[in-house]
Amino acid sequence: MSTQPTYEQLSALPAYAVQPVPMPFEDINGHLNVRHYIGIASEGLDESLVSLGIPQTWPITAGHACFSAEHHCTYLAELRTGDTMSARVRLLGRSERAAHVLVYLLDDTHQRVSYVMEEVFLHIEMETRKTAPWPEDVAANLDRQIAADADLPFASPTSGCLALR
Predict the structure, then answer these.
(1) Please, which residues have CB within 8 angstroms of residue 81's CB and are 6 or more apart in sequence?
(2) Which of 92, 89, 139, 83 is nearest to 111 (CA)?
(3) What is the structure's pLDDT at 165?
(4) SS3 assignment, position 59
(5) Which helix (H) or strand (E) holds 143?
(6) How far apart are CA 108 and CA 8, in angstroms?
(7) What is the rounded radius of gyration, in angstroms, for the C-alpha atoms of the chain?
(8) Is 135 helix (H, G, I), strand (E, B) or coil?
């Protein structure tokens, strides 16, 4: 994988899921257990989608949802109990029914990039529980954010194993 963006570059993006690493999330090695990285990154992604017209109540209020399809996870530096962490999101692209994103977990205590989650997620119609085209307003909002993120002054390399279809 190519060089990741720096903490300084990513910390300029909006922060989501800001919280300290709680003791119950610690594993036998004294750091954040692997199972919580995806959960916290997903929480940050969910928070970032609200401004794009995808509220966390979307399945209930509108009959739409986002389902994860694929992930690629990269662990760069451990997060330990008490460290403050935050998620930063960069949308890479979308297709008619899917979106491709990078979510970075930052260790704000030590000012470093801790984790990168690359994800493809799908738009789902809850009545059929099948993929469907993005609603027009959400598609337009996604497109605006993708364009804004494409203009960021740093590269965000991907794993190369995930792609929109």
Answers:
(1) 20, 21, 22, 23, 25, 26, 30, 31, 32
(2) 83
(3) 86
(4) helix
(5) helix 136-150
(6) 10
(7) 16
(8) coil
Q: Which amino acid is at 164?
A: L
Q: Is 16 exposed, middle or buried (0-12, 13-18, 19+ CB in 10 A)?
A: buried
Q: Tens digits of per-residue pLDDT, 121-161?
A: 999 999 999 999 999 999 999 999 999 999 999 999 999 99
Q: How many CB atoms lie within 10 A of CB 51?
A: 11
Which tokens sit at 24?
Answer: 């119950």
The model's pLDDT over 104-123, given as tens digits with 9 standing for 90+, comes to: 999 999 999 999 999 999 99
Distance CA(95)–CA(88), nearest Å, equals 22
- The token duo for 18 is 């800001």
User: What is the rounded distance in angstroms from the CA atom of residue 79 to the CA atom of residue 70?
Assistant: 24
Q: Do residues 48 and 40 touch, judged by C-beta distance below 8 A?
A: no
Check the CA dihedral 105-110-113-115 and report its sign. negative
